[in-house]
Design a protein that fits this description.
Largest sheet: 5 strands, mixed, barrel
Number of domains: 2
Distance between the termini: 47 Å
Oligomer: single chain
Radius of gyration: 20 Å
Structural class: alpha+beta
CATH topology of the largest domain: de novo design (two linked rop proteins)
Helix content: 25-40%
Bound molecules: zinc ion
Shape: elongated
CATH superfamily of the largest domain: Recombination protein O, C-terminal domain
Amino acid sequence: MIIQEGIVLRERLVGEHDKFLDVLTKDNGMIEVSAKGAGKIGGKSRSSAQLFAYSKFCMDRRGSRYYLNSAEPIHIFYGLRDSLTKIALASYFSEVLTFCIDEECGGAEIMRLILNTLHYLENGKRDQQLLKSVFELRLMAEIGFMPDIIGCRMCGIYEPDILYFSEKNSCFYCADCFDGAVDKDFTKIKLPVLSAIRHIVLADFNRLFNFRISDSAMMSLSAITENYLIVHLERHFQTLNYYKDVRKIYE
Ligand SMILES: [Zn+2]
């Protein structure tokens, strides 16, 4: 018997009552769990085996598949269902994670990132754009796409007022060193955006969501983190388009 804490990031109904779940776990990365009876009304694991439920799962493993015996809910994130934008953004996070995290990869840091992000998304105490940017960029850093943000790639200056950041090359140049001839891949940003980028990739988890940023810097940061993820994962996400559509309607 295997006991693991995990969060359900995708569910597929099989037949009338059974489900396949993609569960992100601390020790085993993303695993696929067959959950018999989890779709049944009144079934004992119904609430703990639903989308975005964070639960303690007791399972058996046969081959590469896990079979659910029982599950005990830790936190169900019901508050995400309060609003369409919340559930749409959470769905984007889960699509990204199920795409880029495999079995035996991920681990405690990724778990912490998604649980913290969903916690703030649920309670509404952080701006959704900020949560999205933190999730996108910190995730990329955790899975091996850490941007080089120590200083200008040419001269090493640490805090230029204006700089040119490249999502593709994961680095930046200050205005003095920047060669405009290669400007296609670069975005011009100001120092507060660089400071936010540094905070997101370097801060301890307990401080990760604690920073302030002006509305204009937030727009700039948001464009960069989104593009950074798309460029490095080489993929577009349907759920992101959906989130943007929903935001337009409900804002
Ligand atoms: Zn420079």
